[in-house]
Amino acid sequence: MEQNIVEIDKIDLLNKTIDMKNEGHRLVQVCAVAEPGGSVLLYSFIKDNSLATLKFFSGSDEAVESISCLYSYAFLYENEIKELFGVNIINMNLDFNGNFYETSIKRPFAMQPAESVEADG
User: Fold this and answer.
1) For the sheet containing 2-7, what is the strand order?
2) CA-to-CA distance for 40 and 37, rounded, in angstroms?
3) CB 5 within 8 A of CB 53
4) H or E element at residue 114
5) Which of 26, 31, 59, 57 lies closest to 43 in space, CA to CA?
6) Cα-based angle 64, 21, 25 (whole degrees, multiple of 5)
7) Is 31 within 8 Å of 12 (Cβ atoms)?
8) Among candidates 38, 28, 117, which has minimal Cα distance to 85?
9) What is residue 27's three-state secondary structure?
10) Considering the domain 2-120 in this protein, what is its CATH number?
11) How far apart are CA 96 and CA 5, in angstroms?
């Protein structure tokens, strides 16, 4: 299987996703990785025997446009990332507003300053 990771600017996510959809790609996953100051987001698409991943960084105070207008089921991934990592994903076709998961702490996978973790802990 061919794999391709393309680093993009987050402002280009919707346009790149439109391109993927128009080329016949299926959305197969959206995931996040906590980084200092925000998160790295990875949106993976497959067509035939080729996996393409769009990768970008989103600062903790920045908004990311939902792709659920193009792939309706993306709201599942996006609600998860919003709640667990604290990524501000906007304009989802179905936003659970913090009620998708029941967790003992808000944003459990978001990177927190050391003193904040100790105070929560």
Assistant:
1) 2-7, 50-59, 38-47, 26-35
2) 10
3) yes
4) helix 114-120
5) 31
6) 110
7) no
8) 38
9) strand
10) 3.30.460.80
11) 30
pTM as predicted = 0.86
Look up residue 89 and give its two tokens: 């994903």
What confidence tens digit (pLDDT) does each residue in 37-86 have? 999 999 999 999 999 999 999 999 999 999 999 999 999 999 999 999 99
Q: In terms of C-beta density within 10 A (0-12 exposed, 13-18 middle, 19 or more buried), how is residue 104 classed?
A: exposed
Domain ranges of the chain: 2-120
CA distance 26 to 46: 5
Burial per residue of 40-73, b for 16 or more beta-carbon CB atoms within 10 angstroms, e otherwise: ebebbbbeeeebbbbebebebeeebbbbbeebee
User: What is the token pair recorded at 82?
Assistant: 């919003």
